[in-house]
């Protein structure tokens, strides 16, 4: 690999550029890029790597960064685009693309995580990937394990910062009982607290009910899973309603006890006289109305 790729700037045909690492982008953001280029022109050239076609000796190019700008030029019907042309291998291009996207990564995207896996498949060690991406070796190791296990749901939670990668790996390696132990340990060690702990619990429940993420099951498995999920959801709702009914019944009993106790006390002339002597002859209207509705009025 070259540590300092040679480069120069020139106008090249958009049709000769191949996007080797395509990314799905937000349509609204892309429309803004198109409008901005149409009004102000291209502020920064794209970066490409030159490739020579051995059969025809024609030059083609691999895109390193600037997919949005390139696609905007195509939408605007522009035949050529300013580009910084560098001399670099495909592996170097992938690393540069990865680092460039690392600086502007949106947390809901899995592109960075997939690029880490691509670097691993290209022969880079976990320590080399960590050094090139400025990520910790522990993070890279955990991400690769989750990617190889197709844990897309956990990966999204890791990249959005909802759970640490170490906790995600422990969840992926545990069964249903073990997952609860992982969450408890994370709480006790203060790794997950408050809203993050609740988010982790919801994530675990979603993973248990719906699987690891997209592409993890075939149609038959999904059909069986949906029936099991429906039954489990119904049972959970029934249990929740039973708990609410028990709480409501206990609260009603306590309110009746308090109401009748107050009514009995206010029926006692000695108690009322004591309240008047202490300047407490008035009670809140809400309580008074409540007592009035129970077997007569306050004396």
Automatic annotation (TrEMBL):
Residues spanning the membrane: none
SUPFAM superfamilies per record: KorB DNA-binding domain-like (SSF109709), ParB/Sulfiredoxin (SSF110849)
Protein name, per record: Chromosome-partitioning protein Spo0J
This protein's GO CC annotations: chromosome
GO biological process: chromosome segregation
Pfam families for the chain: ParB_N, RepB
Domain of life: Bacteria
Domain (ParB-like N-terminal): residue spans on this chain: 10-102
InterPro entries tied to this protein: Chromosome_partition/occlusion, ParB/Sulfiredoxin_sf, ParB_N, Plasmid_RepB
Listed SMART domains: ParB
């Amino acid at each position: 690999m070259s540590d300092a790729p040679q480069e120069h700037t020139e106008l090249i045909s958009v049709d000769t550029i191949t996007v080797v690492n395509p990314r799905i982008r937000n349509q609204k953001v892309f429309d803004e890029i198109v409008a901005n280029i149409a009004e102000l022109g291209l502020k920064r050239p794209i970066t490409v790597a030159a490739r020579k076609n051995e059969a025809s000796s024609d030059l083609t190019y691999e895109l390193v960064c600037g997919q949005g700008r390139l696609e905007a030029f195509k939408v605007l019907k522009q035949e050529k685009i300013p580009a910084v042309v560098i001399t670099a291998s495909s592996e170097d291009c992938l690393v540069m693309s990865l680092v460039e996207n690392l600086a502007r990564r949106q947390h809901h995207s899995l592109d960075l995580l997939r690029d880490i896996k691509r670097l691993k498949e290209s022969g880079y060690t976990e320590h080399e990937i960590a050094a090139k991406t400025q990520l910790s070796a522990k993070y890279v190791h955990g991400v690769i394990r989750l990617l190889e296990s197709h844990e897309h749901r956990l990966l999204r939670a890791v990249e959005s910062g909802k759970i640490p990668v170490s906790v995600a790996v422990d969840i992926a390696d545990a069964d249903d009982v073990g997952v609860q132990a992982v969450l408890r340990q994370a709480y006790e060690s203060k790794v997950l607290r408050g809203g993050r702990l609740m988010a982790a619990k919801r994530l675990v429940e979603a993973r248990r009910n719906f699987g690891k993420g997209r592409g993890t099951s075939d149609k038959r498995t999904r059909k069986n899973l949906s029936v099991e999920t429906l039954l489990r959801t119904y049972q959970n709702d029934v249990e929740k309603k039973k708990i609410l009914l028990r709480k409501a019944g206990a609260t009603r009993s306590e309110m009746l006890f308090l109401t009748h106790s107050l009514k009995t006390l206010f029926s006692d002339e000695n108690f009322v006289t004591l309240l008047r002597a202490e300047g407490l002859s008035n009670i809140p209207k809400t309580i008074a109305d409540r007592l009035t509705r129970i077997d007569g009025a306050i004396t």
